[in-house]
Amino acid sequence: xxxxxxxxxxxxxxxxxxxxxxxxxxxxxxxxxxxxxxxxxxxxxxxxxxxxxxxxxxxxxxxxxxxxxxxxxxxxxxxxxxxxxxxxxxxxxxxxxxxxxxxxxxxxxxxxxxxxxxxxxxxxxxxxxxxxxxxxxxxxxxxxxxxxxxxxxxxxxxxxxxxxxxxxxxxxxxxxxxxxxxxxxxxxxxxxxxxxxxxxxxxxxxxxxxxxxxxxxxxxxxxxxxxxxxxxxxxxxxxxxxxxxxxxxxxxxxxxxxxxxxxxxxxxxxxxxx
Length: 274
Known about the structure:
Blueprint: E1 42-46, E2 54-57, E3 62-66, E4 71-75, E5 98-101, E6 104-107, H1 112-121, E7 129-131, H2 134-157, H3 160-171, H4 180-193, H5 195-202, H6 206-218, E8 222-224, E9 230-233, E10 239-242, H7 249-256, H8 260-273
Antiparallel strand pairs: 1-6, 1-7, 2-5, 3-4, 8-9, 9-10
Helix pairs in contact: 2-4, 2-5, 3-4, 3-6, 4-5, 6-7
């Protein structure tokens, strides 16, 4: 009889799973000179989105006031010199032109002398041209976007009285004819368009009081004299308060509402508006 073949169990070897760590994005690092100047390529652009085929800027007969030395120093960009300061130059001075092409000038990292002239000393810096700074621009853009989000969130959650008060600052008496939906829409658009001013108005305690005074005047409870110096009762013409010199009448009225006398008048007007 044939022998039965015995089954041979083959051991299963599990291969260990090696987790690979995600590499974090590293910000570029640049070498620095002894004076702290970063060695890197730099981009300069003409202001106002101007993009002429070529535009030269002055590379000689320019001056920069040295506060440490206490006098103006003449500047010149020369190809064969290790400085832009004329009083430090040695030997021949071979003048080099500085030309923007299509509104832009890329200066390689090796040309630190030209970079320093453009970034630190040139009198046309930030007037005729500017240095492109991606990191700084990104930081500013992030700050603006965060402010915009904060403003839109505040606009979404704001009550109708505060919304009316803020929009009255922007569009005046037209706000009285707007529906609540129109008011909410315009408020959100205003917060997105000008988040900084919007947040300032939200945190201004006098905005609601100014709006309250304007509404009371619009319905005739209060009246403002033609010279805008006096508030009077609409019912009997009795003087309520004088507007201090050089103050906006409704700003002055808002401040007056916070006084002891003004608080009583505020309560009286509030009952009439209801």
